Amino acid sequence: MSSKQGGKAKPLKQPKAEKKDYDEDDLANIQKKKEEEKALKELRAKASQKGAFGGAGLKKSGKK
């Protein structure tokens, strides 16, 4: 009665992915994407620090 059926089954190991050979155009595109993502991250960090856009928002004059 000592079978190994209870509990979680171990996941099967997947074969390692082969390294791809990139040419100059592919490498340039990858580098460009990384730079864009980095710039977006910085902009998000700045936006989160400032809070609301423009400060007070719309102002009402009170006149009709």
From TrEMBL:
This is Translation machinery associated TMA7. Pfam families: TMA7. Residues 1-64 are annotated as: Disordered. Residues 32-45 have a biased composition (Basic and acidic residues). It comes from the Eukaryota. PANTHER family: TRANSLATION MACHINERY-ASSOCIATED PROTEIN 7. It comes from Amborella trichopoda.
